């Protein structure tokens, strides 16, 4: 009994001292008083009538002291210092909104907005369950304000999210004919990191895929996560473009997340060139591709398509045919064989018939085909 009494006397004496001082001098006294307040007076025996008013008086004095100290700590630039005392009060009554707001502010100011929101949620739940009440407008507004500070929970991704990290461009079937200037210019564009999307456009068979693959191969070592080739020639449904990209990246399908989410998460930090080949049949996927570029800061996309995607970020890159003997008079074999288109024709013909040769007789026809 004697020890207890001395605690109370000391507690009240510290508070009385604090009241005589200027606010900036009060903090150590308030803190000492709160250290002395270990538990409510005679809490083991709550039905002692004489103790009730005293217990109530001390509780209120302690509450006022915590709130005052919180304010002084905040002004002193140390808003986190009172959090343990505030939490002890909330453990007794988490629906005390004056304490709750002070605690939420202290937590938010000391970099723990998520902790503030947890206590708010606990308070709201208790208010509803125990008192069938709702939080005051001021408390709710504070929670909204702090809620805006809490970062969105990170997407929890399956382990298979890691992307494959090697160049995956199909090997060239033969040597490239001509196109050295085109490869070089395309390369420059891809290495310009302000360029996010390049679309090589042109008629079917003009060599878009071949050129894009060549350029991608040349720059693959400049992207630390390499190049990923996505063949879209057989994809007819624009909604299947992202799943095809995810598959090419080696990202496992997941019922919990849509492909856009998975790809964005996987490519968040990735320094990667994505080669989307033959996009012309799925141009309606343009908005999804645009969103992907926005979500993945270091992603560059090289597309091939008969038509451009018509996105703001797009650099359209029209590809002209290989050089052709375009004047009808060109018919001498030694002249037309210098044209790249003829060279390609001859290579194809020889793949079927190794003995195929340009002659005076067939040269005019060959030039006509190449045109
Ligand atoms: N410059 C070139 N050198 C060698 N072969 C080429 C060249 N350009 C295109 N080809 C070949 O011609 C065919 C059609 O080219 P491709 O790139 O698929 O055209 P597109 O994608 O424009 O439809 C492919 O077999 C390709 O390997
Ligand atoms: Mg193609």
Give a topology summary.
Blueprint: H1 2-20, H2 27-36, H3 51-75, H4 83-92, H5 97-109, H6 113-131, H7 137-147, H8 180-191, E1 197-201, H9 208-219, E2 227-231, H10 241-249, H11 259-267, E3 272-277, H12 286-295, E4 299-305, E5 314-318, H13 333-336, H14 340-352, H15 360-370
Bound molecules: adenosine-5'-diphosphate and magnesium ion.
In short:
The chain is of the alpha/beta class and 371 residues long. The protein is built from 15 helices and five strands.
Q: What report would you give on this structure?
A:
Residues 6-147 form the Bacterial transcriptional activator domain. Residues 194-323 form the AAA+ ATPase domain. Pfam families: AAA_16, BTAD. The chain is α/β, with parallel strands linked by helices. The protein has 3 domains: 2-147, Serine Threonine Protein Phosphatase 5, Tetratricopeptide repeat (Alpha Horseshoe), CATH 1.25.40; 159-318, 3-Layer(aba) Sandwich (Rossmann fold), CATH 3.40.50; 333-370, no CATH class. The chain is 50% helix and 8% strand. The protein is built from 15 helices and 5 strands. It has a 5-stranded parallel β-sheet, sandwiched between helices. The protein is rod-shaped and about 125 Å long. It starts with a helix and ends with a helix. The model is unreliable at 153-160 (pLDDT under 50). The chain binds adenosine-5'-diphosphate and magnesium ion.
CATH level-3 fold name of the largest domain: Rossmann fold
**Low-pLDDT residue intervals, each spanning 5 or more residues:** 153-160
User: Number of domains in the coordinates?
Assistant: 3
The spatial strand order of the largest sheet comes to: 2-3-4-1-5
Question: What integer value in Å does the Rg equal?
Answer: 37 Å
Query: What structural category do the secondary elements indicate?
Result: alpha/beta
Output the CATH homologous superfamily of the largest domain: P-loop containing nucleotide triphosphate hydrolases
| Run of helices and strands | HHHHHHHHEHEHHEHEEHHH
Q: Mean pLDDT score, rounded?
A: 87
Q: What is the number of strand segments?
A: 5
């Amino acid at each position: 009994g004697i020890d207890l009494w001395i605690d109370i006397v000391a507690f009240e004496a510290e508070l009385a001292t604090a009241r005589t001082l200027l606010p900036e001098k009060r903090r150590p006294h308030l803190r000492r008083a709160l250290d002395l307040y270990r538990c409510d007076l005679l809490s083991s025996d709550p039905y002692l009538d004489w103790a009730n008013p005293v217990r109530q008086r001390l509780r209120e004095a302690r509450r006022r002291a915590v709130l005052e100290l919180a304010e002084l700590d905040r002004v002193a630039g140390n808003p986190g210092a009172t959090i343990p005392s505030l939490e002890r009060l909330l453990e007794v009554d988490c629906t005390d909104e004056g304490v709750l707001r002070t605690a939420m502010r202290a937590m938010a100011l000391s970099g723990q907005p998520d902790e503030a929101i947890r206590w708010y949620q606990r308070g709201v739940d208790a208010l509803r369950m125990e008192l069938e009440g709702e939080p005051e407008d001021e408390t709710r507004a504070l929670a909204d304000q702090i809620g805006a500070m809490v970062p969105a929970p990170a997407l929890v991704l399956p382990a298979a999210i890691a992307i494959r990290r090697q160049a995956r461009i199909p090997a060239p079937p033969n040597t490239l004919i001509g196109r050295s200037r085109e490869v070089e210019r395309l390369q420059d564009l891809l290495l310009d990191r302000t360029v996010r999307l390049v679309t090589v456009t042109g008629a079917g068979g003009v060599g878009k895929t071949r050129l894009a693959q060549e350029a991608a191969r040349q720059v693959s070592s400049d992207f630390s996560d390499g190049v990923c080739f996505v063949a879209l020639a057989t994809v007819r449904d624009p909604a299947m473009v992202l799943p095809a990209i995810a598959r090419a990246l080696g990202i496992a399908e997941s019922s919990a997340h849509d492909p856009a989410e998975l790809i964005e998460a996987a490519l968040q930090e990735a320094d990667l060139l994505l080669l989307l080949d033959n996009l012309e049949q799925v141009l309606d996927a343009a908005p999804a591709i645009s969103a992907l570029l926005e979500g993945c800061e270091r992603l560059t996309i090289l597309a091939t398509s008969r038509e451009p995607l018509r996105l703001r970020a797009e650099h359209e890159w029209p590809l002209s045919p290989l050089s052709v003997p375009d004047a009808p008079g060109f018919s001498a074999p030694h002249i037309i064989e210098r044209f790249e288109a003829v060279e390609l024709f001859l290579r194809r013909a020889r793949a079927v018939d190794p003995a195929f040769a340009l002659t005076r007789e067939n040269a005019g026809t060959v030039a006509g085909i190449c045109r």
